[in-house]
């Protein structure tokens, strides 16, 4: 199943039917894609969105980066809780959303390292390009 992991209904169906899933995404706002693919993502070293930091930060910038990352844990729990409940009821076992996303066969990531910072990628992550630009006349 080709699906978007932001709404994990496709992954719940793929898990139920025991078929492989392919994810197509730009990124999950709360960093759930890092957790599901087991990519290293320490908040003291990897710049967070809206901080305007680079990969070279001083101590106070690292602390700010860590503080910007704290709400992500609560955001993920709040947003994905209904899907975890739905998956647990439908699959008739206790399931979390990271467990569902961890089952993906391939992640097609729309990353462009010109706009994003370089990051480690796991073997099942394929970078397929980023921004689509059209020429103005």
From TrEMBL:
Family indicated by similarity: Belongs to the UDP-glycosyltransferase family.
Q: Which GO terms describe its cellular component?
A: membrane
**Under what name is this protein listed?**
UDP-glucuronosyltransferase 1-1
Q: Which residues cross the membrane?
A: none
Q: Which UniProt keywords apply?
A: Glycosyltransferase, Membrane, Transferase, Transmembrane, Transmembrane helix
Topology of the protein relative to the lipid bilayer = Single-pass membrane protein
**PANTHER family according to UniProt:** EG:EG0003.4 PROTEIN-RELATED, UDP GLUCURONOSYLTRANSFERASE FAMILY 1 MEMBER A1
Q: Which GO terms describe its molecular function?
A: UDP-glycosyltransferase activity
Q: Which InterPro entries does the annotation name?
A: UDP-glycosyltransferase (IPR050271), UDP_glucos_trans (IPR002213)
Q: Which compartments is it annotated to reside in?
A: Membrane
Question: Looking at the record's lineage, which domain of life comes first?
Answer: Eukaryota
